[in-house]
Design goal:
Elements lengths: L20 H7 L2 E7 L4 E6 L7 E5 L2 E5 L6 E5 L6 E6 L5 E6 L3 E6 L5 E6 L5 E6 L5 E6 L3 E6 L5 E6 L5 E7 L2 E9 L3 E6 L4 E7 L6 E4 L5 E6 L2 E6 L4 E6 L6 E6 L5 E6 L3 E6 L4 E7 L4 E6 L5 E6 L3 E6 L20 H4 L25 H7 L3 H10 L4 H13 L3 H5 L4 H14 L6 H15 L7 H39 L1
Antiparallel strand pairs: 1-28, 2-3, 3-4, 4-5, 6-7, 7-8, 8-9, 10-11, 11-12, 12-13, 14-15, 15-16, 16-17, 18-19, 19-20, 20-21, 22-23, 23-24, 24-25, 26-27, 27-28
């Protein structure tokens, strides 16, 4: 005689949302640290040389952060007023910054000493950066001018005029050392040639320009102003596309080190990532405060975001570790000492015969034991009393229908034993997976107890509740069908 088989309860898995490779890439950036500064974070600059430190400008100081520890390693505080645009040179050894005193200062990061002080602007200097040759400095000011300075002598090389409002952002191009790009609150982005000292191109963004970045090839420039991001073809001077995924002003733009991903930060607390091939959003991260600046380290392992509440948010992506290659196993002769020294966890060879384990006795749940003994009422009462998963209850009901014992189980019940059955029907009869079989159970109950309806107020109240639940579900289904018909009419009209 064979043993009774265990009832198989169907497992309905949740729908798994498949993420794109870009989403999986950005989800690897996990929150590492949040460092509180005493003022809003106005600028973040990254060194392109190891150990890939980064400079954070806030208030009247510039802090140098250690990439590995996410802590302040050095602090440059030689500013009398608010400091702006602390920018690290590619090798990370020098830093340039402007301030409200109209002065540009160059610091040696290791000693924090001032190497150069350059004056010439008439108002606050809010843009400073080293050019691609590392021998000149570019600056932009609220006096509406862009200037270049000789790092060796500290003298002004050229003054570029043409903007009619504050100059707040700028960029240089890796492949074109003689090209400078500046963005202004006069809604324009201008391209300057250091050789002729003239404007060689103007791009009209249409709103005050908050940030501008350029691809290393120099053929594409991305500008941000209001809630729009615009991508430009520099050679033709034409607009390629406009991106409007933010709800408030876009305050910061940045490329990752591969120049294949664009990041944008906004006052709507959102950081969004775009794929440069399609300019579509691939991922977004919500922050607790408006975002003023952002960027990634040169090795693409850290995402650093500066907020208006003075918090530096740091996210880190784990770097893949190299897996040591296993040494191939040499042929071991059976019966030798090395053969027995392999241990019990040694993998079997192709020629080995694997002995199967003797079949273990299956431990049955209690309701299966009741069914094995033909105690159907006890099995059904047990699963209702112990508040089993609805899937288990429905599975037992299916087995009872298969054995044609449902009437036997539901009959001869009093008010106390009918109450849990009706409660279960009320809670689950409208579920799509259980509707069919529970409707059959409800019909059997009504057939059995239709003659005694009205004798028990408790049962009458539960039956009325079940009736109302079914009426509500029918109304909802009717509305769904009306909506489906309207949608089908709409699609038919659009296709014709």
């Amino acid at each position: 005689m064979t043993d009774i088989k265990k009832l198989i309860v169907p497992q309905h898995h949740r729908i798994i949302v498949k993420h794109t490779p870009e989403q999986r890439y950005w989800k690897k950036f996990k929150f590492t640290a949040a460092v509180k500064e005493y003022s809003s974070i106005s600028h973040i600059s990254f060194s392109l040389a190891e150990p890939f430190h980064y400079a954070v400008t806030c208030g009247s100081k510039v802090n140098i952060y250690n990439r590995k520890t996410s802590q302040v390693e050095q602090s440059i505080t030689r500013f009398k007023k608010t400091a702006y645009s602390g920018f690290l040179r590619k090798d990370g050894k020098l830093l340039v910054a402007g301030d409200d005193d109209h002065v540009i200062q160059v610091f040696e990061v290791g000693t924090r000493s001032v190497l150069r002080q350059m004056s010439g602007h008439a108002r606050a200097v809010q843009l400073t950066r080293f050019d691609e040759s590392n021998t000149h400095i570019m600056s932009g000011s609220d006096d509406k001018t862009v200037r270049t300075w000789d790092l060796a002598t500290g003298e002004e090389v050229a003054c570029y005029t043409g903007h009619t409002d504050y100059v707040r952002c700028g960029a240089t191009v890796t492949s074109q050392h003689n090209l400078l790009i500046s963005g202004s609150y006069d809604h324009t982005v201008k391209l300057w040639d250091k050789r002729s000292r003239d404007c060689v191109g103007t791009l009209d963004h249409g709103n005050p320009v908050e940030s501008v970045v350029a691809l290393s090839t120099g053929t594409v420039v991305v500008t941000a102003g209001h809630n729009k991001i615009k991508v430009w073809d520099v050679k033709r001077g034409t607009l390629l596309t406009t991106i409007s995924n933010h709800q408030k002003t876009v305050s910061a733009l940045a490329f990752d080190s591969t120049n294949t991903r664009l990041l944008s930060g906004s006052l709507d607390h959102q950081v969004k990532m775009y794929e440069m091939l399609t300019y579509k959003v691939t991922h977004s991260i919500k922050y607790p405060a408006p975002i003023l600046c952002l960027g990634t380290t040169a090795d693409n392992t850290h995402l650093v975001v500066g907020c208006s509440d003075g918090i530096v948010n740091i996210r880190q992506r784990p770097t893949p570790k190299e897996v040591p290659t296993k040494r191939p196993l040499t042929s071991i002769h059976p019966g030798s000492l090395a053969f027995f020294a392999r241990g019990k966890n040694a993998p079997p060879r192709k020629t080995d015969v694997i002995a199967e384990n003797p079949s273990k006795k299956i431990k049955l749940p209690k309701y299966d034991l009741f069914l094995k003994r033909f105690q159907y009422c006890e099995a059904f009462d047990y699963i209702l009393k112990n508040k089993q998963n609805p899937e288990v209850v429905v599975t037992v009901l299916r087995e009872l229908f298969r054995r044609d014992t449902v009437k036997q189980v539901l009959s001869n019940r009093n008010e106390v034993t009918l109450k849990p059955i009706l409660n279960f029907l009320i809670n689950n009869i409208t579920h799509p997976r259980h509707c069919a079989i529970l409707s059959d159970v409800a019909h059997v109950l009504l057939d059995l107890y239709s003659t005694v309806i009205g004798l028990s107020p408790t049962i009458d109240k539960l039956l009325e509740k079940l009736n109302n639940r079914l009426k509500y579900e029918l109304r909802v289904q009717e509305q769904y069908f009306k909506l489906q018909g309207a949608i089908e009419c709409f699609f038919t009209a659009t296709q014709t």
